[in-house]
Design a protein that fits this description.
128 residues; alpha+beta; Glutaredoxin; 25% strand; globular; disordered N terminus
């Protein structure tokens, strides 16, 4: 159980200590929830950069990195490491330390996410 709290995917371990990750996990790349969640962050590049936050859209066969200009990578690992069997859509916040900080089954508003990040000890201490 202890290991399940930290970065599970080898692919994501390269981001540890340099970026927080918001995983948008879905069975369907065309789901309305995915499109709506991405649109909420589309114009927030400064706020994302300030918080060292990368957005990954995670699907069964691939993932997309970014909120605007997407980088596509083939991978099943992240999806199967983080997907909850009975949930068609989830957002998951992974902290700088690689641990899971938040998991929701519905959309998250940028202001809610930024409040959570801004209250984290590393963020408050100036470690971003």
């Amino acid at each position: 159980m202890f290991f399940s709290l930290f970065v599970q995917s080898q692919e994501l371990s390269s981001f540890q200590w340099s970026n927080r990750l918001l995983l948008i996990v879905s069975d369907n790349p065309n789901s309305p929830e995915v499109k709506q969640q991405i649109s909420l962050f589309a114009d927030d590049s400064l706020a994302l950069d300030e918080r060292k936050l990368l957005i990954l859209q995670v699907f069964p066969e691939h993932y997309l990195m970014g909120a605007n200009n997407f980088v596509r990578r083939q991978s099943r690992e992240i999806y199967f490491d983080y997907k909850s069997v009975d949930r068609p859509f989830q957002v998951i916040l992974i902290g700088l330390d690689g641990s899971e900080k938040l998991r929701k089954d519905n959309l998250i508003m940028p202001s809610e996410l930024y409040t959570i990040i801004d209250s984290m000890p590393m963020r408050r201490s100036g470690g971003n």
